[in-house]
Amino acid sequence: FEGAFFNEFVWKSPIPAQDLLSKVAQSGISAGVDLGVFDPGLSDCILTCATEKRSEEDIARLVSAVGEAL
Fold it and tell me: What letter would DSSP give residue 40?
């Protein structure tokens, strides 16, 4: 997915999005929405939102949790 974005962006996971989101949720973090729920062709895509309410530390925790889940 290319192009500009504001608060929300879509990214591809190397494993099924549902599996990744479940693993990250065990850390108490909501990493986004599994787009495969809406279109089976997007089962490896996650919609994530980061607003001004999230600190750099919050985003670093998300990145770390995703890395550990992979």
Answer: G
pTM: 0.85
Return the SS3 of 10: strand
Query: What is the token pair recorded at 5?
Result: 């974005």
Backbone φ, ψ for residue 17 (5° rounding): -55, -40
pLDDT in tens, the chain (70 residues): 677 767 889 999 999 999 999 999 999 999 999 999 999 999 999 999 988 888 899 999 999 999 999 9
Contact 47, 33 (CB under 8 A): yes
What is the identity of the amino acid at 1? F
Q: Six-digit token pair at 69?
A: 């889940």
Give which of 20, 21, 31, 19 is closest to 59, Cα–Cα.
Answer: 31
Q: Where are the alpha helices (DSSP H) in the chain?
A: 17-25, 56-69
